[in-house]
């Protein structure tokens, strides 16, 4: 009897928690189709008709196309920078023994505890001095600098699982070290590279505080900043706000659906190897 | 000898691009920040004075807002770490014990991790300010009639509710993979010996996933001390400064009107030291217990 009771209890707890997790998203979606009046008269009910007017209006008023493009520039710049720099460094640090190599690796790993607030003031100044403030591309470059240590850590662990003989065979066949890396090693790093891309995609796409500090012109805003501004501007018009929240989340959810496998793999691998 | 130099040279070449970015955007700002924390620089002037440890003394002794923020953050960290880990572990065990719908539940509980904290918290603002008041008009949900975002003693729990919602996904995945790693014969032996679910948890599951506990508690400590986006979007630190975490206090000091760069840097260094000391103690203590188990 106790086993069946336990099983029923397990389903009940899971169901209750699932309601808690889905509730705000369900409420946001349902109300995003209502008119402004409907939101006030019946928040809990279904909309009388499913109309996409809020979505059209949010798309236009929040300038989604433009801020979406800015977000893509930030994300792509950041990810390309992180993948290229960290794969080179992570591979070589993993293959080289000795004090210098250990020391550099520790230098990278040590930074993971630094809170962003500890560096934000001086980082903003640094970005301004280098002419990187105020452009999505510049923001991407700064993000690459902040993101390399995590990626190096993941590459470092992954390279340990690739046999050294492959490096040696490459050099015997007369490949230079760099050519060997790009032709032979990098293709083998594809699984961990996918993981690193997705993890950084979630961070870069959704980041808030660093873009706030570096992008001070609304025409350069990323999606999250635009939504933040939009929220302040139309805070009474919930139907419109909710449509903008849903709309700006769609791209990342779609991308995520395709890459889910690598994210789950990456989070668990990264944690276990640490 | 030349071979060793050649190897070191080649190492440096491979590491150089990452190292340059890392030094420019992380190490140098960190060192500069540490330096400015001993000055009274306001962020604009060319000149500033060296004031020794006066900023640190002021922050810890005279700054009531900062002390309140530390106290608020400490409370938040304690509850967030406990709640997130308990719920994530519970979810992982429940989902792993199911035969069906594992993937569905995993997706549901991981979903908040995809969304931007700012964007998903705005959805919660809607829930707290419109949906729950409407629900509380029905007799059965009368208890929901609270000032969710307006009263600091209530909004503390609102913040925790949202942080739990957004925080358990990653932890749950780590716990799930740790539970999958427990050898099947140990579980079977325990069941044959008549172990209750509680005994299973205490003597089989927890000791064998100790490494995952260490990692997850480290991750939650680290992220809870740095909480900013969530509180910014939910309460803005208010009403008043009723829900202001350390990070927001630093931001206010550095940028919003006050412009005390040097002083804000000192506070930021204090935050770094708090996180550093606490996580180091946590990892050292828990690593030791792992070996014993």
TrEMBL record, chain A:
SUPFAM superfamilies, per database record: MetI-like
From the record, what ranges are coiled-coil? Answer: none
Q: What is its main location?
A: membrane
Q: Which residues form the signal peptide?
A: none
One GO biological process term is: transmembrane transport
Keyword Transmembrane helix found: yes
Gene Ontology cellular-component terms listed: plasma membrane
Q: Does the keyword Transmembrane helix apply?
A: yes
**Which membrane topology describes this protein?**
Multi-pass membrane protein
List residues traversing the bilayer.
9-29, 69-91, 103-124, 136-159, 180-205, 238-259
Record Pfam families: BPD_transp_1
Location of the ABC transmembrane type-1 domain: 68-259
UniProt-listed PROSITE patterns: ABC_TM1
Q: Which UniProt keywords apply?
A: Cell membrane, Membrane, Transmembrane, Transmembrane helix, Transport
The protein's location, in the record's own words, is: Cell membrane
| UniProt family annotation | Belongs to the binding-protein-dependent transport system permease family.
Which protein are we looking at? Answer: ABC transporter permease subunit
Its taxonomic path starts at:
Bacteria, Bacillati, Bacillota, Bacilli, Bacillales
UniProtKB/TrEMBL annotation, chain B:
User: Biological process GO terms, please?
Assistant: transmembrane transport
CDD domains per record? TM_PBP2
Q: What Pfam families does its record include?
A: BPD_transp_1
Q: Its principal location?
A: membrane
Residue ranges constituting the ABC transmembrane type-1 domain according to the UniProt record = 70-282
Query: The organism sits in which domain of life?
Result: Bacteria
List the record's Gene Ontology CC terms alphabetically: plasma membrane
**Which keywords has UniProt assigned to this entry?**
Cell membrane, Membrane, Transmembrane, Transmembrane helix, Transport
TM ranges: 7-31, 76-95, 107-127, 154-179, 200-221, 261-281
**Where is this protein found?**
Cell membrane
Q: Give the way it sits in the membrane.
A: Multi-pass membrane protein
Family membership noted in the UniProt record: Belongs to the binding-protein-dependent transport system permease family.
* Name listed for the protein in its UniProt record: ABC transporter permease subunit
Q: Which organism is it from?
A: Paenibacillus sacheonensis
């Amino acid at each position: 009897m106790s086993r069946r009771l336990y099983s029923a209890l397990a389903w009940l707890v899971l169901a209750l928690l699932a309601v808690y997790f889905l509730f705000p998203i369900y409420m946001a979606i349902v109300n995003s189709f209502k008119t402004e009046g409907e939101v006030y008269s019946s928040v809990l009910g279904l909309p009388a008709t499913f109309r996409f007017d809020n979505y059209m209006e949010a798309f236009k008023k929040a300038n989604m196309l433009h801020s979406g493009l800015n977000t893509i520039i930030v994300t792509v710049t950041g990810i390309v920078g992180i993948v290229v720099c960290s794969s080179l460094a992570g591979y070589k640090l993993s293959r080289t023994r000795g004090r210098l190599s250990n020391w550099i690796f520790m230098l990278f790993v040590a930074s993971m505890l630094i809170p962003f607030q500890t560096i934000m003031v001086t980082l903003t100044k640094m970005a301004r001095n280098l002419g990187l403030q105020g452009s999505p591309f510049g923001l991407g470059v700064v993000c690459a600098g902040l993101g390399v240590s995590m990626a190096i850590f993941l590459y470092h662990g992954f390279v340990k699982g690739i046999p050294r003989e492959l490096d040696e065979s490459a050099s015997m066949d007369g490949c230079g070290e760099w050519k060997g890396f790009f032709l032979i090693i990098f293709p083998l790093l594809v699984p961990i590279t996918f993981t690193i891309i997705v993890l950084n995609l979630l961070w870069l796409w959704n980041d808030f505080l660093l873009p706030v500090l570096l992008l001070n012109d609304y025409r350069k805003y990323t999606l999250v900043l635009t939504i933040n501004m939009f929220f302040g501007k139309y805070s009474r018009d919930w139907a419109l706000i909710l449509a903008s929240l849903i709309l700006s989340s769609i791209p990342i959810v779609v991308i995520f659906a395709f890459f889910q496998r690598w994210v789950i793999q990456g989070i668990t691998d990264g944690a276990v190897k640490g | 000898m030349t071979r060793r130099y050649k190897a070191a040279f080649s190492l440096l070449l491979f590491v150089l691009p990452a190292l340059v970015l890392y030094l420019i955007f992380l190490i140098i700002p960190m060192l500069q920040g540490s330096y400015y924390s001993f000055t009274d620089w306001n962020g604009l002037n060319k000149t500033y004075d060296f004031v020794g440890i006066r900023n640190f003394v002021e922050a810890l002794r005279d700054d009531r807002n900062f002390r309140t923020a530390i106290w608020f953050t400490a409370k938040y960290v304690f509850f967030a770490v406990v709640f997130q880990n308990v719920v994530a572990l519970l979810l992982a065990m429940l989902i792993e014990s199911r035969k069906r719908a594992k993937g569905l539940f995993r997706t549901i509980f991981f979903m908040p991790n995809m969304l931007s904290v700012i964007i998903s918290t705005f959805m919660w603002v809607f829930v707290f300010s419109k949906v729950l008041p409407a629900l509380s008009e029905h007799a059965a949900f009368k208890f929901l009639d609270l000032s969710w975002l307006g009263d600091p003693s209530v909004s503390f729990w609102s913040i925790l509710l949202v942080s739990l919602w957004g925080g358990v996904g990653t932890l749950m995945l780590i716990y799930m993979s740790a539970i999958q790693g427990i050898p099947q014969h140990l579980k079977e032996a325990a069941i044959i010996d008549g172990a209750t679910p509680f005994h299973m948890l205490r003597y089989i599951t927890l000791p064998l996933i100790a490494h995952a506990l260490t990692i997850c508690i480290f991750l939650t400590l680290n992220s809870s001390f740095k909480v900013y986006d969530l509180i910014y979007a939910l309460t803005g630190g208010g009403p008043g400064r009723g829900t202001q975490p350390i990070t927001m206090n630093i931001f206010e000091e550095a940028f919003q009107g006050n412009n005390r760069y040097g002083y804000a840097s000192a506070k930021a260094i204090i935050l770094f030291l708090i996180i550093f000391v606490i996580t180091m103690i946590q990892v050292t203590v828990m690593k030791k217990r792992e070996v014993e188990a």
